[in-house]
Known about the structure:
Elements: H1 26-38, H2 48-60, E1 64-68, H3 73-81, E2 89-92, H4 98-106, E3 110-113, H5 125-130, E4 136-139, H6 151-161, E5 164-168, E6 176-177, E7 180-181, E8 188-192, E9 205-209, H7 212-222, H8 246-277, E10 283-285, E11 292-294, E12 299-304, H9 306-309, H10 313-322, H11 339-342, H12 352-355, H13 367-376, E13 377-381, H14 389-404
Parallel strand pairs: 2-3, 2-4, 4-5, 5-8
Antiparallel strand pairs: 1-9, 6-7, 6-11, 8-9, 10-12, 12-13
Helix pairs in contact: 1-8, 2-8, 3-4, 3-7, 8-14
Pyridoxal-5'-phosphate (PLP) is lined by residues 70-72, 96-97, 99-100, 142, 168, 170-171, 192, 194, 205.
Amino acid sequence: MSSTLAIHGGEPVRKTSFPSWPTWDESDVEAVADVVRSGHWGRLNGTRVAEFERAFAEFQGARYGLAVVNGSVSLRLALMALGIEAGDEVIVPPYTFLATAVAVIEANATPIFVDIDPETYCLDPAAFEAAITPRTRAVIPVHLGGQAADMDRIMAIAARHGIGVVEDAAHAHGGAYKGRGLGSIGDLGSFSFQASKNLTSGEGGAILTNSEDLDDKCRALHHCGRRKGGQWYEHPFLGSNYRLGEFQGALLLNQLKRLREQTERRNANGLYLNAALAAIPGLRPMARGRGETMHPYHLYVCRYDAAAWGVPRQRFVAALQAEGIPASEGYTVPLYRQGLFTERVFGPYTGYRQNRPDLDYTRVDCPACERASTTEGIWLSQSVLLGSQEDMDSIVAAVTKISAQRRTL
Ligand SMILES: Cc1ncc(COP(=O)(O)O)c(C=O)c1O
């Protein structure tokens, strides 16, 4: 193999691609075709969505499951089920996809950003507790990339202050914390089945809970405000149509059969990469052993030390990509720096002019998130982790090659 870096025109470490995503076979095609033939395409006269809800809730260890159109709506409905109102505050981490905070705005409440733990990139429990005010009604810990947030501490703090917990488990299908399924620990757990996710039907989402009351509320919210067992034109509650369709239900049911094996493979590959990459100066894998008994690695995240490498992260990632490793820089700014927040473009929501004239997101400063987004975080996507041990070795070989020539970068 050429020792010249591929970014300088040398031979790349890899010329073949990693496993593609989604994975499917004829059984997926048949599952969807069956729905077509049945003529029962919507959940109101079909069986697949309901069957999937039961199967997925059981898989994650929750009593109730509800499928909805996506993992943004699921967050919003979970907050609405908790009774969040205008003027309330909901604490969120800033190292997350936009949806976590937008769900708060669309639930008519105010997102309050709190820093992440630099060892896990998940919500820092101490910072969460310090940010609680009399207006705080809920917190949304995000299991970033499938890494479990510190749920024991978060649940204890929330209980002490009477605050609801909605787990954003959009990255955490198959994940477990101290043996408990992620998304089944808080008051409610929210999942996404969007195309990149570890369990997917292209689009889709779910809400899990152990509370019959919260499940009833979410069901009413997603089904035009209807009452369980009520009449078609009886709408005693607020709600709209966020129902998932039967094509997606059928696909999810079939895809679910692969999830355990795929999760175990990603977890094993993640541990393998951790051990190998920890030996390379200037790279630090995220902490393990903090309770995540199964890490689904929606993202494999590693920390880059620009000072040790002598070049910014962007250059290192470009060098990795040139070697055939599809790494990325992930979220490149803390969420609170997006114009949505700096300009408070909240449309009709939150009543911020009356409720929060003092709120100024340009003053938010979360140093761990700043580092993670601007200089430190490096991501590999979950499908890369579905590869073989040789695939993982090629990642290590590429990093080792670049490391050996870091002065030429
Ligand atoms: C952390 C997180 N939360 C919520 C969502 C929203 O899910 P969806 O795309 O299904 O609306 C995503 C999706 O990318 C996500 O990454």
